[in-house]
């Protein structure tokens, strides 16, 4: 009996010497990494339309420590230089205006997308333009800006050369020939025309956006990117649902029991 009491006393001493606090820190971090972060990604898949891998992987854990007995799980820019996922998700959690995508920032900087407008991909995306998540492919966006000679002075070498125009207009085995033009309709004061030349197209009767004349006939006019009023969201991403999905209370209690037994050597 004495040995048993001594063993129990040793376990109590281990817990009183900081073991209980360490158990709490480990339990909180267990739940943050194993339950809460995956639950956030699952909720994104459930409420968003084709979320990108960048957004799904954005929840980041700042683990609990001895000095801070709670963990933080929040979106974070994991690749650098992109649009902060926190800003993207704020509109989904609280509602309000959607932040500009990187492609929209680039098109505004190039003077193509008007202020107060954002872009929308047509229901039938133009061949090679879309990344599968409702966004413009990076290489395709570069081609558009280069085509319109809209790179800044510092990047003027990226603007399309005469040979580049010929390649785009002619097409390749993987890409149909096309000629891009921008239609603003009444956004910028009346009718606008494309550059003079073969297959000129009247743009004033088209919805605002970037369009393409595909093929050689000049009769196949397809939308590439549409200009729309900046979107506003109603709240969709609910952290209460995330907590329920993660079963936070139950999981934390379970991990606390496990970590306390571990600290006590049971």
Description:
The protein is an alpha+beta fold. The protein contains eight helices and eight strands. It has helices at residues 2-47, 53-56, 85-94, 102-109, 138-147, 162-170, 239-246, 248-264; strands at residues 59-62, 72-75, 96-97, 117-120, 178-183, 209-214, 220-229, 232-233. The strands form three sheets. It has a four-stranded antiparallel sheet. Helix 1 packs antiparallel against helix 8 (248-264). The protein is elongated, with a radius of gyration of 28 Å. Mean pLDDT is 78; it is low at 190-201.
Structural class: alpha+beta
Q: Count the beta strands.
A: 8
Q: What is the 3D shape?
A: elongated
Unreliable parts: 190-201
Order of helices and strands: HHEEHEHEHHEEEEHH
Summed over residues and divided by their number, the pLDDT gives a mean of: 78
Can I get a quick summary?
With 266 residues, the protein is an alpha+beta fold. The protein has helices spanning 2-47, 53-56, 85-94, 102-109, 138-147, 162-170, 239-246, 248-264; strands at residues 59-62, 72-75, 96-97, 117-120, 178-183, 209-214, 220-229, 232-233.
Provide tags for this entry.
single chain; 266 residues; alpha+beta; 4-stranded antiparallel sheet; two-stranded antiparallel ribbon; 8 strands; 42% helix; elongated
Secondary-structure topology with pairs:
Blueprint: H1 2-47, H2 53-56, E1 59-62, E2 72-75, H3 85-94, E3 96-97, H4 102-109, E4 117-120, H5 138-147, H6 162-170, E5 178-183, E6 209-214, E7 220-229, E8 232-233, H7 239-246, H8 248-264
Antiparallel strand pairs: 1-2, 3-8, 4-7, 5-6, 6-7
Helix pairs in contact: 1-7, 1-8
């Amino acid at each position: 009996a004495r040995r048993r009491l001594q063993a129990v006393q040793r376990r109590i001493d281990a817990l009183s010497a900081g073991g209980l606090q360490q158990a709490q820190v480990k339990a909180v971090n267990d739940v943050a990494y194993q339950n809460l972060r995956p639950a956030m990604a699952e909720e994104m898949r459930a409420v968003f339309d084709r979320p990108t891998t960048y957004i799904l992987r954005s929840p980041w854990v700042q683990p609990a420590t001895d000095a801070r007995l709670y963990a933080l799980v929040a979106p974070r820019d994991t690749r650098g230089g992109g649009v902060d996922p926190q800003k993207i998700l704020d509109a989904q959690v609280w509602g309000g205006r959607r932040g500009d995508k990187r492609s929209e920032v680039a098109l505004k900087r190039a003077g193509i997308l008007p202020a107060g407008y954002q872009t929308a991909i047509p229901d039938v995306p133009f061949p090679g333009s879309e990344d599968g998540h409702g966004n413009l492919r990076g290489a395709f966006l570069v081609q558009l800006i280069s085509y319109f000679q809209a790179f800044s002075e510092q990047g003027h070498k990226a603007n399309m050369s005469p040979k580049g125009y010929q390649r785009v207009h002619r097409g390749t085995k993987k890409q149909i020939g096309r000629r891009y033009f921008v239609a603003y309709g009444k956004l910028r004061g009346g009718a606008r025309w494309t550059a003079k030349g073969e297959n000129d197209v009247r743009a004033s009767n088209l919805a605002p956006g970037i369009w393409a004349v595909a093929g050689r006939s000049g009769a196949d006019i397809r939308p590439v990117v549409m200009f729309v009023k900046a979107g506003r969201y109603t709240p969709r991403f609910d952290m209460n649902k995330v907590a329920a999905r993660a079963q936070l209370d139950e999981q934390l209690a379970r991990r606390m029991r496990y970590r306390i037994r571990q600290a006590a050597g049971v």
